[in-house]
Amino acid sequence: MEELFYSEQHRDFYRHHVDGGADPYYRALVYLLGMTEETRANFSRCFDGEARMIRPAALEEGWQTGGTARIVRMAFNLWNGWCYESEEEAQDGRMSEAFTPDNLFCCEFAPLLL
């Protein structure tokens, strides 16, 4: 299956971070977080590579737009099933409607998320 990339920068970011290996969860996360200039620039704010953990606080940061938040939500959900807007919501068990397919796929990046 041919890989589909949003841009040349997206492809280069993905190949740099995956380098022909990595598990499918990490590949999905890198693919998604590499999609836009904003998500690439904030990759380490979204994911702690050393600890191999997502950083949910990134969803609340000022650089997020509607589209980038959808990308980050999808990446977090594919990484470990995360479906919360914050650590507080996770602790309370309050799942966010923003993680439902109709909300995640309602953006210009939908063809690349499928």
Q: Briefly, what is this?
A:
This protein has 114 residues and is mainly alpha-helical. The chain has helices at residues 8-18, 24-33, 37-41, 43-46, 66-80, 87-92, 101-104, 110-113; strands at 47-48, 53-54.
Your description of this structure?
This protein has 114 residues and is mostly helical. The chain has helices at 8-18, 24-33, 37-41, 43-46, 66-80, 87-92, 101-104, 110-113, and strands at 47-48, 53-54. Helix 1 packs antiparallel against helix 2 and helix 2 packs antiparallel against helix 5 (66-80). The two termini are 13 Å apart.
Q: Helix segment count?
A: 8
Give the overall silhouette: globular
SSE pattern:
HHHHEEHHHH
Give the uncertain stretches in residue-range form.
none
Distance between the termini: 13 Å
Largest sheet: 2 strands, antiparallel
Mean pLDDT reading: 88
Provide the structure class: mainly alpha
Q: In order across it, which strands form the biggest sheet?
A: 1-2
How large is the share of residues in beta strands?
Answer: under 5%
Rg estimate, integer Å: 13 Å
Percent helix range: 40-55%
What is the number of E strands?
2
